[in-house]
Predict the 3D structure of the following.
Amino acid sequence: MENNEIEKEKAFITVEIIEYIPNSIVVKTILKKSTGNISVMSVDSGEGLNEKTTPFDTFVQIIDGRAEIVIDDQSHILETGQSIVIPAHVKNYIKPNGRFKMILSVIKSGYE
């Protein structure tokens, strides 16, 4: 079984473990467990994420650049260092607004 997680017990700088790729969205898994996951994502200029609804709360932290996150039709502009929690069962999407990197943390426990 292939393990695409970050190597454990080895320090890293989160913003440096993923690069921008032209016209692409890149995702790298930091941790993936049955109870949730943590990923880092780079989004190039002009790219965005389609509207979706997830069954779990999602913590988003911008670690480079600036992003517009729309939650239940309300726009939130986040810049480097800022975070927001996207509630479970609420429609959301990320509008293209220049390139940026973010950490996504999804916690699945507590919804049993």
Observations:
- Strands lie at 25-33, 36-43, 49-52, 58-71, 74-79, 83-86, 92-95, 100-107.
- The domain at 14-107 is CATH 2.60.120.10 (Jelly Rolls).
- The chain has one domain: 14-107.
